[in-house]
């Protein structure tokens, strides 16, 4: 099932890039934007260059973050550019004529669907999110992952503006925003961007280690007693993004299949130094 869903995700994402973005001369953030810029200077096909870029990130990820993290991006690092090559051979364009506004919108929607499906199954394409993790671990451990990711994407978009012109950069910004909103919509419908995850488990140590070390999130643990059984268990409390909530649920399912996981949508969270909005700001 994972393979089929990831194949669907790659097909939708490759279609967005090859059949919408490239024919309309647009760009984007992340690895796609980097390859788009390099293609302007180098005489190679987009899918070929994307393949090389994805494999480079995969190798660096395996070295710096470990094989466990590399496994999360392995499948899409190979499948995505392969499907992209297939769409290049088809030479199909969605829009009948060049329209940058429609292209920016639909490219964002289809790319967001691709990422949303992949994230919901615990996979990643190995783009700017992986690069952000590498930078955080090796260079800037005190900077939050979300800020690094935003900085990388914005930097690529700004650089696109110098190469292709300001208008292209602005269209790329629209595409990036739509991608983000579509991912949220795929994962949790019209829900908020912050969720509270509660886990009642008999293996709190293993799960807490995963949350703190692999996801770089804080976790609280409290003792609870079941009214029916009278047994004492541990409850873990985590505040995170919807995507991280999905990853936590998938890990818990493997670590403790008998655990109880509750996910609650949160409107707002304030807390200085915790990666959320500052508590002293309006």
Automatic annotation (TrEMBL):
DUF2179 domain: residues covered: 217-271
Membrane-spanning ranges: 40-66, 73-94, 100-119, 139-162, 168-190
Pfam families: DUF2179, YitT_membrane
Predominant location: membrane
Compartment(s): Cell membrane
Superkingdom, natural source: Bacteria
Alphabetic keyword roster: Cell membrane, Membrane, Transmembrane, Transmembrane helix
Recorded GO CC terms: plasma membrane
Protein's membrane topology: Multi-pass membrane protein
Keyword DNA-binding tagged: no
Protein's recorded name: DUF2179 domain-containing protein
Species for this entry: Aminipila terrae
């Amino acid at each position: 099932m994972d393979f089929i869903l990831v194949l669907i995700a790659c097909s939708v994402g490759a279609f967005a890039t090859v059949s919408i973005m490239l024919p309309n001369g647009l760009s984007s953030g992340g690895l796609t934007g980097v390859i788009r810029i390099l293609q302007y200077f180098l005489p190679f096909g987009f899918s070929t260059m994307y393949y090389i870029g994805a494999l480079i990130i995969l190798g660096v990820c395996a070295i710096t973050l470990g094989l466990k993290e590399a496994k999360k991006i392995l499948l899409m690092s190979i499948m995505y550019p392969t499907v992209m090559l297939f769409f290049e051979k088809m030479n199909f364009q969605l829009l009948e004529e060049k329209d940058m506004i429609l292209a920016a919108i639909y490219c964002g929607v289809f790319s967001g669907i691709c990422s949303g499906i992949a994230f919901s199954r615990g996979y990643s394409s190995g783009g700017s999110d992986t690069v952000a993790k590498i930078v955080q671990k090796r260079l800037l451990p005190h900077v939050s992952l979300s800020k690094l990711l935003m900085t990388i994407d914005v930097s690529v978009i700004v650089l696109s503006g110098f190469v292709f012109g300001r208008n292209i950069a602005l269209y790329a910004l629209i595409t990036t925003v739509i991608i983000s909103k579509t991912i949220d919509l795929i994962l949790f419908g019209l829900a908020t961007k912050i969720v509270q995850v509660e886990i009642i488990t008999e293996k709190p140590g293993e799960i807490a280690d995963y949350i703190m070390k692999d996801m770089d999130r804080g976790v609280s643990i409290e003792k609870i007693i079941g009214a029916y059984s009278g047994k004492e268990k541990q409850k873990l409390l985590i505040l995170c993004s919807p995507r991280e909530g999905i990853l936590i649920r998938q890990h818990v399912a493997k670590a403790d299949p008998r655990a109880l996981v509750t996910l609650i949508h949160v409107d707002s969270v304030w807390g200085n130094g915790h990666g959320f909005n500052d508590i002293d700001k309006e």
